[in-house]
Amino acid sequence: MIRPFLAALAFVGATMLCAPVSAQHADAGPYVPTPQSIVDAMLLMGKVGPKDFVIDLGSGDGRIVRTAAARLGASGVGVDINEKLVKLANDEAAKEGVAQRARFVNQDLWTFDTSKATVVTVYLLPSIMPRLKQKLLAELKPGTRIVVHDYPLPDWKHEDYMALHEPLKRQAHGLDTAYLYLYVVPPR
Residue 98: inside a domain, yes or no? Predict the structure, then answer.
């Protein structure tokens, strides 16, 4: 009886170490910053350019949308449930001079309307991916690109795939490889 309790306690402790800030959502996962090399690869895989509107679900400190705006001329919005992270992301966008193209909102991803996106980026737990897939297929226009970090959308064949070596991931995951998947919303 004590052994399962200690194992559960160790898991909770390890999870808290991996997530220095508060949880994104009870079922979406903790805040774990995406290393910049992976951000760059996700935007490249999504073929993000100046005409794109990027939505990042669980945006944390906003680095994906801020990078898309600063380096690629795109516009976009990041969605996060953590007010402090949303404030940080908006402050950083202002400092970087991209606040007119990169903004961040404090909202639950399940109630946020993604229909304006041309590109959606996601780094959330695998347990929500089936429900997220249904949301995205219902809201997004055909041709919208979705770039997923680590946890694929179930029962949906990806258009592209990439495995990246990134030592910064070892602290959060114990592994130093990131897996990226590109999906394109099919015609209706």
Answer: yes
